[in-house]
Give the backbone structure.
Amino acid sequence: MTDEPGRSPEFVAVGHVTLDHIGRDVRPGGAALYAALTARRLGCSTGLLTSFGPDFPCDLFPPDLRVIHVPAPGTTAFRHEMSPHGRTLAIVNRAADLETGDLPPPWKEADLALLCPVANEVDPYLAAEFSEGAVGAAAQGWLRAREAGGQVTPARWEDAPLVLPHVQALFLSQEDVGPFEEEVVGWFQRIPFGVITLGSRGAHLFVSGERYFIEADPADEMDATGAGDVFAAAFLIQYQREGNPWEAAQFAACAAALRVEGAGLSAIPSRAAVEERLAAYRRRVGR
């Protein structure tokens, strides 16, 4: 499946789509897919640079989502399990790397791009390829190592110096930060905006290195998968639209709350739904 590159989409997501094995269920997902579908639902023309195998259900891609597909024998797949120490994650298959040569030249002119690695698949040099627009990085997949048996463990982000000079915003979850908090705070000193999402407890927003707290929008959580990716895409899009990082973070918090109240990809909200939720959120928090 390959897009006719033509003119650039407004928003480009880069990263693997995935198949997540949770018990007996296999669910399609991936940070880049959540981000791309969020951008589309928020009104952006959207492109997705990804890699997957014949086992991925391509009928999930809406007709107007432009997809550049790097072929692979199989789709990146994760096995999710619970242990006495919490959730464990293992990589059971990995699709092809995504490199600078895979990005169509017209797509380099996108207004917004979000790099969304899940398994170290995104070439860090891609951050410098989007010369015309703002680049964000949901860096989770750069902070992962694959151990024996596919077990995923925390890893230092050795390529941070290659990426940070070219990004406007960096997104991580509290789980990603783990043993690297001091380094993460240092990264946020070097970029305009950073976000550490805290799930139902809100988020820390860093603006020019200064930390601010963003309240969560209370939600009846059904499934939290992809909430951080929805947050990241919504933040970038709303910041470009309004130019205010605090308002963009509130908008993103409401988008993430709507996402967790439904099941998976089907619960990615529209702009109208987010704006309605945001109005109630601002009445509640008094701004």
Remarks:
- The chain has one domain: 11-285.
